[in-house]
Each structure stands twice: as C-alpha cells, then as structure tokens.
C-alpha cells in the first residue's frame, strides 16, 4: 500500500527553532513530534472554528490515487481573529498546502506551522504551536 | 451688637475648620485598575524567575517525573488563579470599593476579590477550589490579594510546575503607567517548595474599543484529549537543593 503524498522529514532544525513552543492549554510535545515535520497538500473538506483550537480537514491524494482525510490543528479562534483571520479565511473546497508536525499517536493528524492557499497566500499566520498561541 | 459681630466670624472659622478637617480625613481614592488587560504569556514560569523554583525534595521529584500529557487544562479543567494571568488571553478588571472582579477570556473564568475586610472562610480548606478564595487590601498604591483554598488539581504553568492544596498565593497589582499594571505573584507551598518564590509580569492595556473579549468554551471541541501521549521532558533533572 502506498502512503499518501506527503513529505516526511526528520528535521532537527525545527527542533532547535521551536524547542520552547507550547500549545496554549497543554504542552505541544504531549501531542506532536517536533522531529517529524510534514507537508500535506490537499483539498479542505471541513473547518471547525471552535475552542480550544481550530481544526480543519483536508483530503490528501496519494500517488496511487487513494484519498486520505487528514485533521490539522491550528490556533485558538480568538487569537486567530485578533490576528486578522476570519471564519471563512479557509473554506471547504480550498486547495491548501500545510506545513506542520505529525501527531505522536500515529493518527492522520498534524499541527500546522503554515497553511498556504493555491494563490500563495498563507492563512492563520504562523505556528499554532508557537508562543503567539 | 458686639455679640452678633463675634458670632459671624466664629461661625466662619468653625465652618472652615470643619471643612479642612474633612479634607484631611478624606480617604485618598484607590488607584483605578478597571479596564481590559493583556497578559504576558508565560508557559514556563522559569522564564520569569530566571531559574528553577526552590523545590523541596518532594517537589523536585514531582518536577523530574511530571508528565505534560496530564496537564489539567488539556482536559479543560481551570488553570488556577495565577496561571490564568500568564495565559495568552486578555481579561477585564471590574472594580468596586467592596470587591474587585477579574473576568477572564481564557475558559470564561472569573475571580472575586473581596475588599470589605472579611477574612477567608473558616472552612475553606474543606472546600478547596480551582481558583481559590481571594481577599484583598490596598497597601498604598498597591492592591494586595491573598488567595488560599486552592485544590491541587491545577498546575502553575504549561511546563508542569505543580502545587499542593497548601499553596498560599499573594499577588501585588500596581499601576506603573496609565496602560500598565505590574503584577507580582508569590508562591508559598511548603509541600512543593522549600521557600516562597515570586515572579513579576506586566499587563498592558487591551484595547477593547476596537477588540473584544471573546468566548473560550474549552469543552466545545477539545479533540486534543484523544491524542495526548505520555511526555516526561524532565527525567534528566538533577535536584540541587543547595542552589535553591
């Protein structure tokens, strides 16, 4: 079975850059692995603009044509709103490329560092796992 | 005639004297802390303290073995009275003479500080709370808040500094500019810490004319809880009581 089209890089540079980063209401490292950055490219299927952190879902196609739905976690809605983002900044149907980190539990879940639309515009700012969160 | 001439100046003198005495005894109004404020986000109190807090041997072992996947706020339990003030979310101070309310965006929580001279309830230790019981007083320009009655289910920060139900929190709020409050929190907890220790942070004015306090109902969609994995980042920590 082929894996979904994703890039899995063990990048220690990320560890160094974001070693102190924590989620707002619990430790980042209790859920995500800084040593496992991931890039996911796909189509948004749903956005949950809800507390404590937003989640959105993307269908990611593998080279073999198989589609896997991934969950992506972002920041807290109030923080994102204050940073200028809105509930429709990312919508179902949008093509998006997400750079982030894999969940430790092996599920199809990532924490976003950046989310970039097809036109090159990034949404939801920088890392939801950073100190701005 | 003579008597009348004397009465008038005497009355005037008396009035003036009473008025002056009233001015002298009139209480200086308390500093106005009311308004919306932005916290200084501090996920690890060591960043504010500059070093690890002065642990007891027991406290050090708890720090060494802490599992951050057990963070109570990860399960949407309240953060406690000081951690809420180091969270990345704004809060509002509503100030009356007899009480001061702190209303927090984070988890839609509140704290009530009684300013009417009462003490803590005699039975507070039997009914420990997540946010504790707070009484306050003015020491000059500084609001001093004394909090006890805390349960041991909250953590002091995201990094995993814990406390017992013996925690006695003393906070000092002092306006250092029209748009700044200096806040010092002193933690006394003989179970976890060998001596009291303090951190100081600054709150800055949150412009809720243009912005607003928003909802934070933590259980709305707390999907994280299903994905938490054991994480003990301090297993290599070596207790050094002499450096405390």
By secondary-structure content and strand pairing, the structural class of chain B works out as alpha+beta
| Count of helical regions of chain B | 3
Q: Share of helix among residues of chain A? A: under 10%
The tally of beta strands of chain B, per DSSP, is 9
Low-confidence stretches of chain B: none
Q: What's the count of strands of chain A?
A: 7
Question: Helix and strand string of chain A, N-terminal first?
Answer: EHEEEHEEE
How would you describe the oligomerization state of the chains in this entry? Answer: heterodimer
Mean pLDDT score of chain B, rounded?
92
Physical arrangement of strands within the biggest beta sheet of chain A: 2-3-4-6-5
What is the H/E order of chain B? HEHHEEEEEEEE
How far the N terminus sits from the C terminus of chain A, by CA atoms, comes to 37 Å
Biggest beta sheet attributes of chain B:
9 strands, mixed, barrel
Helical amount of chain B? 10-25%
Helix/sheet category of chain A: mainly beta
Specify the number of helices of chain A: 2
Largest interface: A-B, 32 and 35 residues
Strand content of chain B: 25-35%
List keywords for this structure.
heterodimer; A: 133 residues; mainly beta; 9% helix; disordered N terminus; B: 244 residues; alpha+beta; 9-stranded mixed beta barrel; 3 helices; 15% helix; elongated
Topology:
The complex is a heterodimer of chains A (133) and B (244).
Chain A: E1 6-8, H1 12-17, E2 32-48, E3 55-61, E4 67-73, H2 77-82, E5 95-103, E6 109-117, E7 122-123
Parallel strand pairs in A: 4-6
Antiparallel strand pairs in A: 1-2, 2-3, 2-5, 3-4, 5-6, 6-7
Chain B: H1 2-25, E1 35-38, H2 46-49, H3 57-65, E2 91-95, E3 99-104, E4 110-114, E5 133-139, E6 142-148, E7 168-177, E8 180-188, E9 197-205
Parallel strand pairs in B: 4-5
Antiparallel strand pairs in B: 1-2, 1-9, 2-3, 3-4, 5-6, 6-7, 7-8, 8-9
């Amino acid at each position: 079975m082929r894996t979904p089209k994703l890039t899995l890089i063990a990048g220690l540079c990320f560890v160094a850059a974001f070693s102190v980063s924590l989620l707002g209401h619990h430790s980042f490292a209790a859920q995500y692995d800084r040593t496992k950055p991931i890039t996911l490219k796909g189509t948004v299927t749903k956005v949950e603009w809800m507390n404590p952190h937003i989640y959105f879902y993307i269908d990611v196609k593998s080279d073999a044509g198989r589609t896997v739905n991934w969950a992506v976690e972002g920041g807290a809605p109030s923080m994102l709103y204050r940073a200028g983002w809105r509930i429709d900044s990312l919508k179902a149907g949008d093509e998006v490329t997400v750079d982030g980190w894999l969940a430790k539990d092996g599920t199809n879940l990532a924490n976003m560092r950046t989310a970039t639309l097809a036109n090159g515009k990034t949404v939801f700012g920088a890392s939801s796992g950073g100190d701005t969160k | 005639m003579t008597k009348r001439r004397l009465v008038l100046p005497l009355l005037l003198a008396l009035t003036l004297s009473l008025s002056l005495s009233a001015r002298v005894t009139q209480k200086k109004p308390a500093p106005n802390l009311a308004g919306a404020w932005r916290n200084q986000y501090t996920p690890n109190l060591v960043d504010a303290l500059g070093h690890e807090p002065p642990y007891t041997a027991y406290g050090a072992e708890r720090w060494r073995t802490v599992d951050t996947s057990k963070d109570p706020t990860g399960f949407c339990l309240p953060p406690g009275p000081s951690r809420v003030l180091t969270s990345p979310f704004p809060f509002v101070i509503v100030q009356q003479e007899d009480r001061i309310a702190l209303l927090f965006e984070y988890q839609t929580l509140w704290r009530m500080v009684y300013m009417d001279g009462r003490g803590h309830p005699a039975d507070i230790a039997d009914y420990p709370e997540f946010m504790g019981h707070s009484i306050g007083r003015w020491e000059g320009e500084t609001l001093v808040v004394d909090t006890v009655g805390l349960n041991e289910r909250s953590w002091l920060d995201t990094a995993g500094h814990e406390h017992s139900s013996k925690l006695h929190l003393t906070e000092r709020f002092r306006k250092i500019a029209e748009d700044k409050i200096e806040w010092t929190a002193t933690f006394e907890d003989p179970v976890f810490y060998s001596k009291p220790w303090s951190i100081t942070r600054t709150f800055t004015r949150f412009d809720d004319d243009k912005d607003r306090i928003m909802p934070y109902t933590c259980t709305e969609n707390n999907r994280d809880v299903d994905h938490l994995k054991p994480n003990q980042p301090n297993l290599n920590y070596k207790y050094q009581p002499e450096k405390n």
